[in-house]
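Weekly sync, protein design subgroup
Attendees: M.S., D.O., the rotation student, P.L. (late)

Item 1: inverse folding check
M.S. brought a backbone from last month's batch and wanted to see whether the design step gives back something sensible before we order anything. D.O. pointed out we never logged the input encoding, so this time it goes straight into the notes. Structure tokens as presented (241 positions):
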């Protein structure tokens, strides 16, 4: 037996919090009876409907993709551009990306049909580290790197302190490779942080997400997460460890 809101979230209908709202609003029925109690538990044979639509229960699945540049981080695109979901034609479950990577940014992105899991990893209060490697224009002096580490004031607020270090420089081309670790998810945050210190990004890649990295994957390749990796992510989000 599982809590009703968890079953709804696992089905990909909504996040767990939104599922709780649906229940309290009387929009969920179990075996034809409207349910408004959040503690309600259901079994595998119970018939659940949300707004009159039968719930199609799916086993939760979890994937990581090495997203290439030029791909949309969405389940579908109204301009018919390639999306991250297009790399999973063999997956029958209704998966969607957790968070997003910009169209021109490559790297590690997670996909799932587990709404509770997705909400946990993207909620602002859960500090999940994301590590990026950026090729930037110009060679930043030490003080500019310290600015990144202290936090940058952007139009939508100041960023949290970050970890940043210069990996290499090319004096001839006047470019640098910088690793930046953040745990926020503001729109285009990494690019805007580098723009704010006067060193715009030429190329950007997300190398790591919490305990996961891209080892063994080429651009456009994906793999399913192990049960241990999923448990680690849950633990990391809930405890910060």
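Designed sequence read out in the meeting:
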């Amino acid at each position: 037996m599982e809590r009703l809101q968890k079953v709804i979230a696992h089905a990909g209908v909504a996040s767990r919090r939104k599922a709780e709202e649906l229940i309290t609003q009387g929009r969920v029925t179990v075996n034809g009876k409207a349910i408004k109690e959040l503690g309600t538990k259901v079994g595998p044979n119970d018939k659940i409907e949300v707004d009159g639509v039968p719930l199609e229960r799916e086993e939760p699945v979890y994937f990581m993709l090495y997203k290439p540049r030029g791909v949309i981080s969405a389940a579908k695109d109204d301009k018919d551009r390639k999306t991250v979901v297009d790399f999973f034609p063999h997956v029958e479950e209704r998966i969607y990306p957790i968070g997003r990577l910009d169209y021109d940014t490559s790297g590690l992105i997670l996909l799932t049909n587990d709404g509770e899991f997705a909400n946990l990893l993207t909620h602002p209060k859960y500090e999940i580290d994301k590590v990026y490697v950026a090729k930037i224009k110009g060679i930043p002096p030490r003080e500019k790197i310290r600015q990144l580490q202290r936090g940058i004031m952007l139009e939508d607020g100041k960023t949290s302190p970050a970890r940043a270090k210069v990996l290499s420089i090319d004096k001839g081309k006047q470019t640098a490779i910088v690793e930046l670790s953040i745990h926020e998810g503001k729109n285009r945050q990494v690019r805007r942080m580098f723009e704010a210190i006067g060193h715009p990004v030429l190329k950007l890649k997300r190398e790591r997400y919490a305990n996961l990295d891209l080892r063994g994957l080429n651009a456009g390749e994906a793999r399913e997460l192990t049960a241990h990796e999923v448990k680690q992510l849950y633990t990391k989000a809930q405890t910060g460890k």
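Discussion: The chain has a mean pLDDT of 92. Residues 2-54 form a domain with the Structural Genomics Hypothetical 15.5 Kd Protein In mrcA-pckA Intergenic Region; Chain A fold (CATH 3.10.290.10).
Action: P.L. to compare against the previous round before Friday.
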